[in-house]
Amino acid sequence: MLNLKNDPDESKLPYHATPSSSTPDSSERIDETTDSSWTSPSERRMYKRLSVIRHDQQQIVWSSLHFQVGGAVLARRKLNIIVNAVPMTRIQTGIGRYLHCLYTELTRVCPDELNICYFDGSRLLDHLPAGPAFSLKWACVTDVLWRLPTRAALSFRLMEHYKNQMLFSHYAKGFDLYHESGFFPFTTPREVKTVFTIHDMSLARFPEHHPDERVRFFNLMFRRSLKYVDQFITVSDFSETEIQHFLPETKPRICVTPLACDTDFFYRRPPERTQATLKQLNIPDTYFLFVGSGDPRKNCQLAARALETAAPGIPLVIAGWNGWDTAPAPNILPVGYVDDDILAHLYSGARALLHPSVYEGFGLTLLEAMACGCPVIASHHGSLPEVAGNAVLYIHDLSTPSELAARITQLLNDPGLEKEMVQNGNERIRAFTWRRTAEKTRELFWRSAG
Questions:
Q1: What was the pLDDT predicted at 224?
Q2: What is the model's pLDDT at position 210?
Q3: Which pLDDT tens digit goes with each residue over 149-171?
Q4: Domains of the chain by residue range
Q5: Can you tell me the distance from the alpha carbon of 239 to that of 362, in angstroms, rounded to the nearest whole number?
Q6: CA distance 217 to 226
Q7: Under 8 Å between Cβ of 318 and 335
């Protein structure tokens, strides 16, 4: 962790941020207005009450930070970047993986060009934060929070956001650029440029597929936070089109930087090691795989019904945290949240990955499966055709399980097709590399910082 209390001769630092015992001055981009078209009157009243609490708490937070430097020890002739890395401190989802892979590669590509600090929710780090020490315990806590009544869950989310906002605004002083990719952008001093990665617009396109409190938080905070954004990043051409549809004013400021598979973890594992892993998890030799949360847009129930129709004796192994109430099915075998090593073994041993998703901003699990030699059957929706190309079997009809069941039967009965899909998958993953993504992101960061 950066030492913010004992830096030598602070007045001589190349970028000096004077400690302050007061709340942020008027130069900080803090606006208490809300967009009434996106919120209800009761939510706006709640927002105003919490804003008062926020200002009261801000005095306390700034007082506790009185002896700390407002930014970090920043280097000369480098681009000084502060990253909101809070998503990396929780159970790893697509956003946490994006941050880990992107910044790991950025430090390889340009180690002497960027000075990067990571905000973990309480402090600044000069290295990528680790995930939760006890992922299963964190999953249980998250599950409890998801089951709170909407108003309580929304209040908890807002208070957490404001707590992080107060600390972040203090730490951001003196930086050139702020990168946000997991939540809604915090306000920062005016001189700090903001780059915001939007992975998809599912909350706007399919609000019915998200918890009510998340939708209300999105409606309350999303549009108002965009006024502080200087540049947008998204992960696919499909997502760029979606963003421009809902937010046409962003069109000249969007850059597409596709994701990639982390081949340090995802590669075809030796069969004997995979068999040992499957035995530990009580998984039979033959199974199909579903990876993801119980989010309704992932369509797990359709996958289970289709497999039950096509191959009643073969289970569907589900890997991923499930905070949703999903109907039980006799052929489902949940293994919960697993680390990348186990996940790679699950990909390597599966007959195929089933991914009948209604909507995806990218579809990283498809590339992970291909890298492990796992055939993929996926929906022809969202960004998936853009990512998978001709390397997967597609389904178009998501209203019934019949088309997916037919594809499963086709794959089970044609060994030659399976071999062809594995070969096409190996070729397809070469089109996506984190090095290319990092280089494109670096160029955008320098452009944004001016």
A1: 85
A2: 83
A3: 556 666 767 778 778 888 998 99
A4: 42-260+435-449, 271-431
A5: 8
A6: 14
A7: yes
Contact assessment for residue 223 and residue 249, using Cβ atoms and an 8 Å cutoff: no
Q: What is the DSSP letter of 28?
A: B
Tokens for 374, please give them: 């796992």
What stretches of 182-253 show up as alpha helix (H) in DSSP?
A: 202-205, 212-226, 237-246
Residues in the chain: 450
Closest CA to 406 of 312, 297, 307, 290: 307
Domains 42-260+435-449 and 271-431 share a fold: yes
- How large is the greatest C-alpha to C-alpha distance in the chain, in angstroms? 73
Q: pLDDT digit string (tens) for 383-429? A: 999 999 999 999 999 999 999 999 999 999 999 999 999 999 999 99
Nearest to 445 by CA among 82, 189, 70, 182: 82
Q: How far are the Cα atoms of 136, 189, 244, 421 from residue 5, in angstroms, in the given order? A: 35, 21, 44, 57
Give the CATH fold of the 42-260+435-449 domain: Rossmann fold (3.40.50)
Residue that is written with structure tokens 């579809």 in the block: 363
Place of tokens 């002739």: 77
The whole-angstrom separation of Cα 142 and Cα 300 is 20
**Helices in 90-211 by DSSP H: which ranges?**
94-109, 135-146, 150-171, 202-205
CATH architecture of 271-431: 3-Layer(aba) Sandwich (3.40)
Q: What are 443's two structure tokens?
A: 């160029």
Compute φ and ψ for 189, nearest 5 degrees.
Answer: -55, 150
Looking up tokens 């990253």, which residue turns up?
A: 83
